[in-house]
Inverse folding.
């Protein structure tokens, strides 16, 4: 492996920082971040005097990359499992637990849904009939709903799958790609097999599906940056990336102190697709077109703290929170009871009950036009109906993530393949981030590690 003399990483989120960490000891790395802080969607603030995650609050444990990176940078002892609890859906006026054994809301055993109230008798009957329904192979990418409605029925898609995908992607089943958002289901569809039987045959994962970090996931990017040894420049907005006559790279940036011009042997773009598209337009027209075609959803997180001594909290349910199907028409798409879910959070704030509510899916931008105060009131309104009267919060904060989550629409895999094919012509340049092979922290870390290896190899 050829050592790269110097690398500029544009973007100080977890993807770019993972790339910088991968290059430690093998390159002189400079990370350029336009914001005043690093970490991207991993941000831990304080509310009522205690740490609270304002973005992602856990990492997937089924994929090893994020957990392995956290361990490597010294956060292994801080990794923690959530309290065990079923996935709960607020629908038809009640909180209803989903039986175990589902894949992103698709139940492997319809009988386990009986008595839950999640589906009507007609919806359950449709689900039970799935193994008898003819199945032909799917030969091209389709929207999730185009495939699933034919297999398990619209009610199951609306009531079970939509809330799960809304929580992961902030997306909708009639737009999201089956191959990119549900690759395991897509493989069954491509073989032309009945779906539920195939899901029942899958091995069930052991242990927790996600892990948290005591003190907040915002600790992860800070630790990765420190261990990478990279030079990190915040408040530095990249305006242009250019190829030099010698085959290297030149980066033009703006800072509070004026223009900045840097040269390097390689560049890694760890920015959202729309930002990468702008920088790559003069260098890679096909990649520019593909990146520009990746839509994004905006979301907001409403975090609240309640005083435990108030009688209104007596009826607050156990469990870790709930998801909400869009068909039910509520503002909130999910809620997390932080003080129940994370032991470290409960210990950090013994006198308070902390929770957060999420707002915003693709196509719901109008909801985010409300002021912070109105979003807090709307979230409280939904929470009161879901869990009962919980009183007024003693503190609340709204965190907005404008264009925060890329949408893997139909044809996403082919689109990203064309992007990478076009960029392969440019030695010493790589891309990484949530826009390509997964929106979770583990997937982002994986793309950052891969980008670092690519520029190392020339």
């Amino acid at each position: 492996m050829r050592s790269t003399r110097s690398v500029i990483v544009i973007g100080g989120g977890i993807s770019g920082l993972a790339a910088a960490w991968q290059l430690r000891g093998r390159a002189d790395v400079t990370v350029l971040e336009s914001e005043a802080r690093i970490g991207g969607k991993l941000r831990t603030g304080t509310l009522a005097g205690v740490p609270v995650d304002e973005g992602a609050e856990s990492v997937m444990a089924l994929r090893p990359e994020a957990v392995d990176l956290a361990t490597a940078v010294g956060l292994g002892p801080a990794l923690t499992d959530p309290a065990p609890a079923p996935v709960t859906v607020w629908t038809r006026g009640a909180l209803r637990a989903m039986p175990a054994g589902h894949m992103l809301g698709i139940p492997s055993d319809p009988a386990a849904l009986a008595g839950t109230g999640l589906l009507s008798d007609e919806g359950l009957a449709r689900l039970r009939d799935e193994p008898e329904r003819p199945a032909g192979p799917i030969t091209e990418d389709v929207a999730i709903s185009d495939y699933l409605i034919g297999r398990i029925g619209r009610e199951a898609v609306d009531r079970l799958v939509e809330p799960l995908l809304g929580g992961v992607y902030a997306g909708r089943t009639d737009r999201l790609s089956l191959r990119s958002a549900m690759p395991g289901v897509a493989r069954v569809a491509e073989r032309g097999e009945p779906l539920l039987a195939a899901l029942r045959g899958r091995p069930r994962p052991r242990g927790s599906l996600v892990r948290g970090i005591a003190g907040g996931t915002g600790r992860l990017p800070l630790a990765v940056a420190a261990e990478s040894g990279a030079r990190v420049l915040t408040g530095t907005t990249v305006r242009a990336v250019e190829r030099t006559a010698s085959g290297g790279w030149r980066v033009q940036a703006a800072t509070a102190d004026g223009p900045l011009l840097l040269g390097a042997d390689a560049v890694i773009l760890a920015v959202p697709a729309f930002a990468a598209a702008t920088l790559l337009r003069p260098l890679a027209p096909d990649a520019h077109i593909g990146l520009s075609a990746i839509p994004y959803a905006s979301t907001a997180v409403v975090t609240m703290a309640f005083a435990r001594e108030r009688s209104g909290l007596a009826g607050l349910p156990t469990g870790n929170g709930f998801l909400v199907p869009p068909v039910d028409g509520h503002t909130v798409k999910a809620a997390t009871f932080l003080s129940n879910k994370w032991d470290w959070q409960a210990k950090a704030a013994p006198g308070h009950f902390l929770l957060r509510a999420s707002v915003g899916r693709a196509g719901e931008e109008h909801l985010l036009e409300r002021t912070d105060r109105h979003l807090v009131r709307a979230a409280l309104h939904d929470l009161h109906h879901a869990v009962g009267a919980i009183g007024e919060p003693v503190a609340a904060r709204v965190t907005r993530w404008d264009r925060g989550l890329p949408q893997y629409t139909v044809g996403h895999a082919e689109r990203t393949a064309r992007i990478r094919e076009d960029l392969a012509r440019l030695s010493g340049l790589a891309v990484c981030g949530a826009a390509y092979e997964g929106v979770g922290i583990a997937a982002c870390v994986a793309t950052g590690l891969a980008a670092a290896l690519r520029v190392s190899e020339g």
